[in-house]
What we know:
Layout: H1 12-26, H2 28-35, H3 41-59
Amino acid sequence: MLIIPVKEGESIEKALKKYKKKFERTGTMKQLRARQKFTKPSDEKRQMKMKAIYRNQMFGDLE
């Protein structure tokens, strides 16, 4: 459960913005979306490898 401390006189919009940012950082939505369908471990590894290859091609020459 997320706890957002709200200061005296702080607007609701600001508190909501803090909540959204904290919620995004925890990765809750990412977990929920990942749990909606089962992916085989070999498919996950393949996907991670493809992302790494793509990142290396795009940003590897910047070093």
